[in-house]
Write a structure and sequence with these properties.
Length: about 700
């Protein structure tokens, strides 16, 4: 039996077994008790390529006018000290929210949308949490992926009911052109944040009929603050097999087991910390995550330009955390623990065909999400414990169609429509429509309008005592006009404008049926609007120096229904619609990168500067509970500089040095909790050194 056959059998076994293993490992950890107290690293493609709607899911259905960026991951992305957030922060339309140290929760927002409105795909299938609606990129490792595709605006028709603001597809499999031989790569990183990691990657395409990628990594970090330690184990496998002239089989899986301490926010001035350490006040103390993602695609080439693809996936996620806080009335210490397990089963069947400048695609899909939740509370004052369990589920059946037609010379019309039939809320429709005009080989005009929605999460619908089964999905309309041009002497530029209008935003708000004001449930009460301008230029010089500049300026506004008065003795309450700058988004962002040869042959240096304008954050103030008011905090405008240098030692080994936040001792783009502490900054200046050797 060949080595490749063994790998295929092992990967097929993982599809069946890994979800079971995930839960066994998770419960084992719970029963023993969690502890308590290229030289250019990534290339941004400015032109608008064809949307593949996920790896091997519906490839080559024709070009689209929806704005798309493709990012290829290089060796430099394997360095320690930061995760996927360091990749996405380069994009002008994206803002990354992170808690700081390695392993902290990190989420991505697109064009002002919430993190729950950003759909993450891995190899074409959704991985957002069905309980929270978000995807925490802080618990996965960037070395397991070969690249990413970023789509702005409501998700393409085949991607389901969650990508209201945008879609990010992480790709595990590598391009066939990059896997012409078997290769083993070892990488070790040591950072100033007390992080040490080891990774090994095996990849190859020895026969021309199959290419695979196998990735393992183990890391640990003591963190920059008390109780911010992190450990992580990662394993990923992908394999693309050309079975014969008609059939292609693709399989991929990803497994991660992580655990980290969360130090919390700084206490208010004059107040001593109570939990975990003297530097923190009430917040999570310990969190662990186990993630197992399994996916399989079978593609049948009906002809040279038409194909049928079948996808099947099963994803599981187990999250356990414990936190502390003070009861508003008794002032006694409360220990709260949460144990959440989600299972997502999905399948899809798609057909696509293309002829000349025309293309057509259609498909059906079904995804079923199940949540097993358990909340435990311990009151230190009364020594009483309570426990609540719940197990909701939901399913969505979808049908979609997409078409592209060449109207006149250089003019292409694209349109797509999706209908989702959920069993927990009303049927919802999404559409996309666009025009793309190519003027010669170098200039492109594109217009796109899309309408989409975000489905309510299982927690928003069924959380014990607070869920709302009458929620409607959040709905949004996105418009974008973009012009791009390739100029002589290695210069490319683009500019564009966009608008977004979102209604029925889901927010937690006092239950109108409860006169006391203590009961809060999620409700469709807020709205959001955005309009912005983007521009970018890339220049490649003859001496191999590359310069890129992206700029975005936008106006994000949100209308919140807020409580302005609450007298729980008389039951009199007053509310008002208040318009504010939306969320913690900068209205202006600029990204400048320079890449140049250095340190002799095989050396390179990359400089990056990201400038953001001030950001405002609103949070609920419970000091006069049950009357709850809104307060705000602000982070001033700031610039963060990063430097990365690489040097090939010989034909098979490379040294990489990364220095993040070069001129700042504190990284101020992180908000604390609802205390008067202002911010609890993430680590400031830090560096890491990585050694990579290929065999």
């Amino acid at each position: 039996m060949s080595k490749h056959t063994i790998l295929v059998l092992l990967s097929a076994t993982m599809i069946i077994v890994s979800p079971i293993v995930t839960f066994e490992v998770a419960y084992a950890g719970q029963s023993t008790g969690s502890p308590l107290p290229k030289t250019d690293p990534y290339e941004v493609v400015l032109e608008l390529p064809a949307v593949t709607v996920g790896a091997l899911k519906n490839a080559d259905i024709g070009k689209t006018s929806q704005p798309v960026n493709k990012i290829g991951f290089g060796d430099a992305l394997k360095t320690g000290g930061a995760g996927l957030e360091k990749i996405f922060e380069d994009q002008p339309s994206i803002f990354v929210q992170t808690g700081g140290d390695r392993g902290s929760a990190a989420s991505v927002t697109v064009d002002g949308g919430t993190s729950a409105q950003t759909l993450f795909l891995i190899d074409g299938r959704p991985v957002n949490s069905p309980s929270l609606g978000t995807f925490n990129i802080g618990i996965i490792d960037r070395g397991a992926f070969s690249g990413a595709e970023i789509v702005r605006g409501p998700a393409a028709p085949a991607n389901g009911p969650y990508g209201l603001a945008g879609t990010i597809n992480l790709e595990q499999g590598q391009d066939r052109d990059e896997s012409r031989r078997h290769e083993i790569e070892f990488a070790a990183t040591r950072s100033s944040l007390h992080e040490f990691s080891k990774a090994i990657t095996c990849s190859g395409d020895g026969t021309g009929r199959a290419d695979y990628r196998l990735f393992f990594k183990k890391e640990n970090s003591r963190g920059s603050r008390p109780n911010s330690d992190f450990t992580g184990d990662h394993a990923a496998f992908s394999d693309r097999i050309k079975l014969n002239d008609r059939f292609t089989f693709y399989i991929s899986s990803y497994f991660a087991a992580t655990e980290n301490g969360v130090p919390g926010v700084r206490p208010a001035p004059g107040t001593a910390g109570k939990y975990s350490c003297d530097e923190s006040a009430s917040l999570y103390d310990r969190q662990s995550d186990t993630l197992a993602l399994c996916n399989a695609d079978l593609i049948y080439d009906v002809s040279a330009r038409s194909k049928i693809s079948l996808k099947r996936y099963r994803d599981t996620h187990h999250n356990y955390f414990r936190s502390y806080y003070d009861d508003f009335f008794t002032k006694s210490a409360i220990a709260f623990s949460g144990d959440y397990q989600t299972v997502s089963d999905g399948s899809s069947l798609n057909f696509s065909a293309a002829r000349g400048r025309n293309s057509f695609g259609a498909g059906v899909s079904r995804i079923e999400n199940r949540l097993f939740g358990s909340n435990g509370t311990y009151d230190a004052g009364s020594s009483k414990s309570t426990s609540v369990t719940y197990a909701p589920s939901s399913a969505i059946n979808s049908q979609w169609v997409s078409a592209s037609a060449g109207m006149t010379e250089g003019l292409t019309l694209t349109a797509g429509l999706s209908r989702d039939n959920p069993d927990s809320f009303e049927t919802a429709d999404s559409y996309g429509f666009g025009l793309k005009k190519e003027s010669g080989k170098n200039s492109t005009f594109a217009f796109y309008q899309g309408k989409g929605y975000r489905a309510p999460t299982l927690n928003e619908q069924y959380y014990p005592g607070s869920g709302n089964t009458h929620l409607s999905p959040e709905r949004s309309i996105f418009r974008n006009f973009e012009y791009s041009k390739k100029m002589n002497y290695g210069t490319r530029l683009f500019t564009g404008v966009f608008t977004r209008k979102t209604e029925d935003l889901i927010e937690w708000y006092p239950d109108p049926k409860d006169p006391s004001g203590f009961s809060w449930i999620p409700q469709n009460i807020n709205s959001f609007s955005a309009r912005g301008l983007q521009a970018g230029i890339e220049k490649r010089f003859k001496n191999k120096i590359t310069a890129k500049l992206f700029v975005q300026t936008a106006r994000y506004r949100q209308i919140n229904v807020e409580e302005t008065y609450n007298d729980f003795m008389t039951g009199i309450r007053k509310t008002a619609a208040v318009e504010r700058d939306a969320r913690q988004m900068p209205s202006r962002k600029m990204v400048l990168t320079l890449s140049a040869p250095a340190f002799g042959r095989g050396g390179n240096i990359r400089l990056k500067a990201i400038r953001t304008s001030k950001m405002v954050f609103y949070y609920s103030d419970y000091s006069a509970a049950p009357a709850v008011s809104m307060r705000e905090k602000m982070i001033g405008a700031n610039t963060v500089f990063d430097i990365q240098a690489s040097k090939k030692i010989n034909g098979s080994s490379t040294l990489l040095l990364s220095v993040n936040n070069v001129f700042n001792e504190k990284y101020a783009r992180v908000f604390g909790g609802s205390y008067d502490d202002g911010n609890f900054p993430a680590p400031g200046r830090n560096h890491s050194l990585t050694f990579i050797s290929k065999f």
